Model the fold of this input.
Amino acid sequence: MSGPRQAYEFLKAASMAHARWDYEVSMSIIKSKKKLLILLLLALPILGLTLVDAADIIGSKQAYAPAHYTDLIFFASIAVGLAAGLITGCIGAGGGFIITPALMAVGVKGILAVGTDVFHIFAKAIMGTTVHKKLGNVSLKLAVAFVVGSGGGTVIGGWINKTLYNHDPILSDAFISLVYAVLLGFLGTYAMLDFWKATRKKTEGGDAGAHDAHGGSAGMTSLSISLQKIHIPPMITFDEDFGGRQISWLWVAMGGVIVGMLAAIMGVGGGFVTFPMFVYIFGVSTATTVGTDILQIIFTAGLASIFQYAIYGYVFYTLAMGMLIGSLIGIQVGALTTKVVKGIHIRGFYAMSIIAGFINRVTTLPKKMVELEYLQMSKPAVDMIEMVGNVVFWLVVGFFGFWVISKFIVNIGKLREEG
Done:
């Protein structure tokens, strides 16, 4: 298997693992009347707040925001969360990738979109995680070593974003858009190639294998075997129930640094690449990984959102609550719809949504480059390019949302019988 293909499989497994976590914590909230009541109480007051006021409540500085706030912005954030939830629930991957680009597409500054996204993930983790149910599978030593690294990673990632923003907000937006364009372009290209191959063969083989990547047994890879043979004390012992394995704290902490940086730079949350990293690189069993990931995502997302963004005023509490509400609805509808749609269609929409996110971010770069005086193009030309990217993005997301919801409504009787 080639290097790029391996990287794609790793990132796809990461996306699917994060989607599974998102689904589990969302269902935990939806099934609890107490948690739903708390969410309602948190959401109601924000309709009377301005975005600037909301930022001041959380942070010590006044964040960049529109001069006037309308309830429409709050409802737009619900729509963003709904779209992400539908993608996560129906496709089982990819929903988390569109939140920051979607917020930026409606005019939110990149640093605020990142801060708000990771804060929304932290809020969902706090409300939806039931740690006590999986304490038997938690390795505290792995979690502590990882969080030490991820905490440092959030400092680095947050420093990069804040430094760029303080130097020039346009440069900050360009940097975040570029990071997303590279990641989504890479993922989207391979996802579309896989979809075309599956379409030509007229088979859905491969879907099961993809799910095995984050739900099956934890086979030791050559890399994980090599890392576990390098003894750099202190060594961490884990998976005692499976015969016991050891790995140096250094590798775990270094992995944490990478995850923390991604969380702080992209706003995708601390659980994005943790699962495949633990299983394929560190050689940790899936059972221990799931339990340990529950602890680390709370701390990593919390450190990134609170200490790198919220205290500086770079979180819109208003939008975070709106996205949380929308995503809870979307995930449930999307997950139910998978029972009545074909897998090949789901794979196609996964590729299309990732490609649409890529187009949306890459088409903003010419305008940013002109504003930074790195490129010479006419203003009408760059505005047109950016508008095309926005139209393509919202058409794809809107069509996907309409398709899923229509399938859900048409088959609601059948779904009730199965339920």
User: Anything to note?
Assistant: The longest helix spans residues 169-201. Residues 65 and 108 are 8 Å apart (CA to CA).
